[in-house]
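Dear H.,

Thanks for agreeing to be a second pair of eyes. The structure we're designing against is below in token form, covering all 595 positions.
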């Protein structure tokens, strides 16, 4: 078998030079810089002690074009000859400190890494105010790598330190002067520290690269397909990668007076955007094939890389990504999720359901010219059904590929509506609501919640149900709005048959925590509920509420009339039926919105 990698060693300085010339790609979004500054400090300390700091894994790119002319701020290479697959955090640390470059952290904020050094104590520390003020410390060791004369730097350092010592009536000894000089030179010479390098050849498939990574990497963390795709973006369309980064970053924090991707439903990651654009632009759900597409693989020639194909596919990507990152599109779509009753990320278990529904939203809008109202209602129904049946969990990529292939045959919005309705009705049959939803695949389980329970809460929002036990006629949906929580959550899950009461009857936790035994109530009411039988506390809670209103609240919250006097097992069975009926009613409402 042909060897797909070779071994070599490179110095830190050689690696940094390769980054500067563009020969080695160091994409700062392939993985955000997640190391703490203390780990960077330890990296320099290990090098200073002569300890090994691990290997680097580089992957040769399929092609290399050298520029004819080199501008002042330009790289020598049009695209990198190699990209780093493993060791990015270490190399980023070394490059950022030695070249005084900022890094992007996990929150997508730019930051500088400052490492201080004490030559007398031969000690590294993360730079902070004390190391900045103490003349015994070199506050930022980058000065050792950017100075034009290390000799002058050492003399200046000694002069300043001696000046501070004179105030205390002392001075540096000859031995201390030698220690200072030797140690500063040693830190500066860390640029010559050698690292072992695995050079993987360009003809290696990403499966091979990932397998090598897992087997060599002691952490055993597998590379994911989106890692490879983001690497390709870094190589061939860096601005597109940065646009994804900006969109993802903005989804995390609101900006006053600016419309961004921020919303109350989901925080976006780069992988989420990759999934959407692969489905929307290329009708692909398997990121493995998305990577091959962007790499320029010719599927008719057993995956041979073709630069023209790569350029054509990047042209498609460049045309379609702006649709995905359009904040107007994004917020139109988010409204469809909320229209489906999912008003908070707390009741959404699969982010994939959000992003694949978004891909369908974009397909309907741009391929079939769906109107805003048509698209919202179609997307609401699809998301409700996808969340309820856990459509996008487990091994879902083949299912999505099948859906996208079917959509490729569609030519107009009416056919698309028929596609949505037929796929939804195929899963959400009467038997699903009357049998499946009542069993162990639905509501007959314990725990804090599953997709069936979440669909029930969404259904209450769709049907404008009021908060159980609320004397203020407060809609449940209102307590999902931002700003309604104080020191405690506005809505809390409550055991209708209290835990202590059921424990006393000999029930175990699995039976006590059945989802049919839960209800969402206002926390103020929750604090007042006793740990006694429902027949004891229910009249207390309902004091001052008319019988008519009690009947309405019970109906809206799927409680059988007279539930407080029922045997617990009978109550669970009856309430599951009522919960399933609420979900079915909400489903029919969403389906009825599609004309």
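And this is the sequence the design step returned. I haven't edited it by hand at all.
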């Amino acid at each position: 078998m042909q060897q797909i990698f070779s071994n070599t060693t490179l110095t830190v300085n050689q690696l940094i030079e390769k980054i500067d010339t563009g020969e080695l790609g160091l994409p700062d979004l392939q993985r955000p810089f997640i190391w703490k500054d203390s780990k960077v400090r330890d990296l320099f300390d290990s090098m200073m002690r002569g300890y090994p700091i691990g290997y680097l894994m580089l992957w040769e790119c399929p092609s290399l074009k050298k520029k004819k002319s080199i501008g002042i701020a330009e790289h020598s290479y049009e695209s990198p000859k190699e990209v780093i697959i493993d060791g990015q955090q270490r190399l980023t640390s070394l490059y950022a400190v030695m070249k005084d470059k900022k890094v992007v952290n996990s929150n997508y904020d730019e930051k500088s890494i400052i490492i201080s050094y004490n030559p007398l104590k031969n000690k590294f520390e993360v730079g902070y105010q004390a190391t900045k003020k103490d003349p015994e410390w070199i506050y930022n060791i980058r000065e050792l790598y950017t100075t034009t004369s290390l000799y002058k730097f050492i003399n200046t350092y000694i002069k300043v330190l001696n000046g501070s010592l004179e105030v205390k009536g002392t001075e540096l000894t000859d031995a201390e002067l030698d220690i200072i000089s030797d140690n500063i030179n040693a830190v500066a010479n860390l640029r010559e520290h050698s690292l072992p390098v695995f050079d993987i050849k360009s003809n290696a498939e990403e499966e091979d690269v990932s397998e090598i990574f897992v087997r060599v990497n002691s952490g055993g963390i597998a590379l994911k397909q989106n890692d490879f795709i983001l690497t390709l973006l870094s190589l061939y369309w860096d601005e597109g990668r940065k646009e994804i980064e900006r969109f993802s970053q903005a989804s995390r924090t609101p900006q006053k007076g600016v419309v961004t991707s921020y919303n109350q439903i989901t925080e976006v990651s780069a992988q989420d955007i990759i999934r959407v654009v692969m489905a929307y632009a290329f009708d692909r759900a398997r990121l493995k094939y998305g990577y091959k597409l962007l790499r320029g693989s010719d599927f008719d020639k057993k995956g041979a890389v073709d630069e023209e194909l790569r350029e054509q596919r990047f042209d498609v990507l460049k045309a379609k990504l702006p649709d995905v990152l359009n904040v107007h599109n994004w917020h139109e779509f988010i409204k469809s999720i909320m229209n489906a009753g999912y008003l908070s990320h707390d009741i959404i278990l699969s982010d994939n359901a959000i992003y694949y529904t978004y891909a369908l939203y974009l397909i309907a809008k741009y391929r079939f010219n769906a109107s805003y109202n048509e698209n919202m209602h179609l997307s609401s129904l699809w998301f409700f059904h996808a969340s309820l049946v856990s459509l996008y969990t487990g091994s879902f990529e083949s299912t999505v590929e099948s859906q996208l292939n079917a959509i490729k045959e569609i030519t107009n919005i009416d056919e698309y509506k028929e596609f949505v309705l037929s796929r939804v009705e195929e899963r959400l049959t009467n038997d699903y609501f009357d049998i499946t939803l009542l069993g162990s695949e639905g509501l007959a389980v314990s725990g804090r919640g599953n997709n069936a329970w979440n669909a029930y809460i969404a259904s209450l929002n769709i049907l404008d149900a009021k908060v159980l036990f609320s004397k203020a006629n407060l809609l449940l949906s209102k307590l999902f709005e931002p700003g309604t929580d104080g020191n405690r959550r506005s809505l809390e899950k409550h055991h209708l048959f209290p835990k202590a009461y059921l424990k006393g009857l000999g029930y175990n936790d699995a039976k006590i925590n059945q989802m049919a035994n839960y209800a969402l109530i206002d926390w103020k009411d929750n604090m007042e509920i006793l740990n006694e039988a429902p027949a004891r506390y229910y009249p207390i809670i309902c004091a001052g509420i008319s019988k008519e209103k009690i009947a309405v609240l019970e109906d809206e919250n799927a409680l059988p009339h007279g539930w407080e006097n029922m045997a617990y097992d009978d109550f669970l069975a009856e309430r599951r039926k009522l919960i399933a009926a609420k979900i079915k009613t909400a489903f029919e409402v969403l389906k009825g919105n599609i004309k």
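Two observations from my side: Confidence is low (pLDDT under 50) at residues 64-74. The longest strand covers residues 5-11.

Warmly,
E.
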